[in-house]
Predict the structure.
Amino acid sequence: MITLQPGVLRRHDPAGVPAPVLVDVSRSGREYPPEFRSPLPFTEVHDNVSMYVEDFCAAAPELGATLLHACFPNTFIDTNRSAADVDESLIEGKWPGPITQSDFTQRGLGLIKRLSRYGTQMQERKLSVAELQERLATYHEPYHQELARILAGMRASSGRAIQLSFHCMSAIGAPTHADPGQARADFNIGDIHGTTCTPELFDFIAATLQERGHTVSRNFPYYGGELTRRHSNLASRSESVFIEINKRQFIDTKTFKKTEGFPAIKASVEALIRAVVDYSRRD
């Protein structure tokens, strides 16, 4: 079964016996709203999208997990940032709501991107207050609300929930990121420094990937964000893990075409989802 809000989200429910696992693919959307504008070449804009991650995770429903996919690009509004992570330099007038900026905002990578990952100006012009409010109400919050609804249902029926939030990252740290110029591991997993999942699950995910021959970094260069912070609650057994896949393994970033490494990474992601589904059914 697929529930679709056109241009906003798709939900793919488990095909068989459901497991309390939600695969969250929120930053791979490629349906650009007509009001999207940027002075940058499309290739540079699009390089900020976690391309093909929804393909890696496509088998999740067959494995017993629920798959939630955002259709819109994170360069339009980023679900991995708080609704209060507002960069006022991008807004015409005074923002009427609360503002709680993060280290991402200071680097131009807040709720609305001031900069691309390469440090170039992302926005064509400032947004009105009404425009940002519309993006929050139409795109950002519906995705988070559906994610929260699914996880609440899992906790009610199974007593637990596990959210796997999948993304992809550049092979080398970009100027706006925490590791400029540094080569990155095959996978980076984050739990916001031990706050969004148990050590047991975090170690299990790292070990599962390492057993398939991958290098894994933890909480660096990425430690997670709003997607994992907002939806985890260890007291109620709701765990969230942020997972970045290194682009060098599967994509030509100049042409955006899949490389020969794509099938192997897809197999590793599917193996990880299958392992976490089995893990979630223990106990």
Notes: The mean pLDDT is 94. The radius of gyration is 18 Å.
